[in-house]
Amino acid sequence: MSVDLQRALESLAGNPNPMPVEDEPGRFDSKRWVRAVAEGCARHFDQFGGLPKSTRMDTATGMFEHQLRAVMAKDYDRPYPGLMARSMMPAATGIPAGAETVLQKGFDITGRPELVVSDARDIPRVSLYQMTQTTRIVGLACKWGINYDEMLAAAMAGVDLDGKGLQAARTVQEREIDLLLSTGDAQYGITGFLNQATKAPAAAGAGVELYTTGAPVGFVAAWDATATAAQILADFAVLEAKFRSENVHWPTDCLLGSGTYARLNTLTVVAGTTDTVLDVLRQRYPGINFRQWWRCDAAGVGAVERAVLYERGDMTAESIVSLEPTMLAPVWDGFGWETVCYARCGGIQAADTTGIVYIDM
């Protein structure tokens, strides 16, 4: 405390008339005293850096800082991208939680009858070819733990810390399931919806047909600033016609990366009008649901954007989640509780990849 401030306070405490008016004994000069205290306080703050941050000085009373703090009732948690993979395709049902693999089976039929004009003995046979596909299922585990001190602190603060921790465990499980359903896990042989085996357009064999903007069907360089609205609409017509020509699958959904979606949603078809390429696509193909999916942003070869045109249905692809995220019984571990969250997932099982087309930008 500065000397001036100390003298001012001591004079008030020990002298009923600490600041007499000059030439008028017995009269108290309050203005002089207040000015002396203020000057002393100012020098004190300059010397010692002011009062502690937790101290509040009012004219009538002293309050602690936390007593004047309002706490918002709502939690403002950190936002993350939406988990959309489950909505992209139907879920397979009837898979026991303990299954380690899933066998998908079916048949292909070949043969053709002949016209009979007389007694015939060389009647052609039809053939059945069995088709099978095996998908591996893996377990996903994480846990939430809380010790006794944290329980006491949470109870004192009135915070449901354990409930938030258990919800956090479920959330990270859902994030991992969304990732497996989207892009799989190469280490465990799991494929997602965006990284199925591919083949060139019209090539024989299994695999999703992969088109690249610029080749081989007259696509432009890319669906970006270099492409006109007419070129993009013509490119999409090629893809839609591919489905119709086979008369097996009909496209119901089109997934677009963030950049492509933004481009199609802002590029106008005719200068000076408001109709964008995306508006026209929705008008021309009302049966197709055009959606933006952030998982497409780097799903293509070379981490480019990948668009997907497909028919949504169990005959095209299904998600394999044999066990939804489940909280196991809490276990006491030394000084606290630990609760394991467990799930089982096998990524995507594509029954017929002819119902899916990839377009890399």
Describe the protein's topology:
Blueprint: H1 3-14, E1 20-21, E2 24-28, H2 30-48, E3 55-57, E4 62-64, E5 101-110, E6 127-136, E7 138-147, H3 148-157, H4 161-183, E8 198-199, E9 208-212, H5 229-246, E10 253-256, H6 258-264, H7 277-284, E11 289-292, E12 306-310, E13 317-327, E14 331-333, E15 336-350, E16 356-360
Helix pairs in contact: 1-2
Please give a handful of descriptors for the protein shown.
361 residues; alpha+beta; flat; six-stranded mixed sheet
Low-pLDDT segments, ≥5 res:
none
- The oligomeric status of these chains comes to single chain
* Helical proportion, percent range: 25-40%
**How much of the sequence is in beta strands?**
25-35%
The biggest beta sheet is recorded as: 6 strands, mixed
> Which term fits the overall shape?
flat
Structural class: alpha+beta
Order of helices and strands: HEEHEEEEEHHEEHEHHEEEEEE
Distance between the termini: 71 Å
Cα-atom radius of gyration: 36 Å
Number of strands: 16
In which order are the strands of the major sheet placed? 8-9-16-12-10-11
The total count of helices amounts to 7
Quote the average pLDDT.
82
Description:
This protein is α+β, with helices and mostly antiparallel strands. It is built from seven helices and 16 strands. The protein has a six-stranded mixed sheet. Strands 7, 13, 14 and 15 form a four-stranded antiparallel sheet that branches. A hairpin with a 4-residue loop joins strand 3 and strand 4. Helix 1 runs antiparallel to helix 2. The chain is flat and about 125 Å long. The two termini are 71 Å apart. The mean pLDDT is 82.
